[in-house]
Amino acid sequence: MQSAEWGARLHLVDLRLKKVEANLSSQSTQRPFDLLASVAVEPHPTRSEFIEYDVKYTLTVKDRDNLDVMDAEITLNSLYRIRDRSRPTEADIRAFGLIGAVDVVHPHMREIVQTLTGRMGLPPLVLDFHAPEPVDPD
């Protein structure tokens, strides 16, 4: 079954910030800054009618001289309820995580990154409108 089909069968129940770890390497003023992001998704199927996903963004900010300015790892956890009694296969769970779960989390991650970089004394940096292509661990 495709990700979109499973997305129609799932209902988002909860979305939580699970982890934020950020390090300011230098207070460089050498603009512009380059924000690099990667995404990894870890599904946690349960025996009940719920599926949980950890969506982890790994971020690196470099200045115009390609020197590290900041790095961060931010994880959001999303919990979905299966609307009917069907049970997804592992492939269904993975497929939805790589597309649907990332699409749900990405707008929230954009806001977190903008706030975090601004609070760290950098210009508020914003992730691209479209999420980075997730890394499939398989």
List unreliable stretches of 5+ residues.
none
> How many alpha or pi helices?
2
- Helix amount, in percent? 25-40%
Share in β-strands: 35-45%
Shape: elongated
**What is the alpha-carbon Rg in Å?**
17 Å
Query: What CATH architecture label applies?
Result: Roll
The CATH topology corresponds to: Bacterial Protein-export protein SecB
Mean pLDDT: 90
**Order of SSEs:** HEEEEH
Largest sheet: 4 strands, antiparallel
**First-last Cα distance:** 18 Å
- The chain-level structural class is alpha+beta
Number of domains: 1
The CATH top-level class label: Alpha Beta
What would you note in describing this structure?
By secondary structure, the chain is α+β, with helices and mostly antiparallel strands. It has a single domain, classed as SecB-like (Bacterial Protein-export protein SecB). It has two helices and four strands, in the order αββββα. It has helices spanning 3-9, 90-119, and strands at 10-24, 34-45, 50-62, 68-82. The protein has a four-stranded antiparallel beta sheet with strand order 1-4-3-2. Strand 3 and strand 4 (68-82) form a beta hairpin. Helix 1 (3-9) crosses helix 2. The two termini are 18 Å apart. The model has no long low-confidence stretch (mean pLDDT 90).
Question: Topology, pairings included?
Answer:
Layout: H1 3-9, E1 10-24, E2 34-45, E3 50-62, E4 68-82, H2 90-119
Antiparallel strand pairs: 1-4, 2-3, 3-4
Helix pairs in contact: 1-2
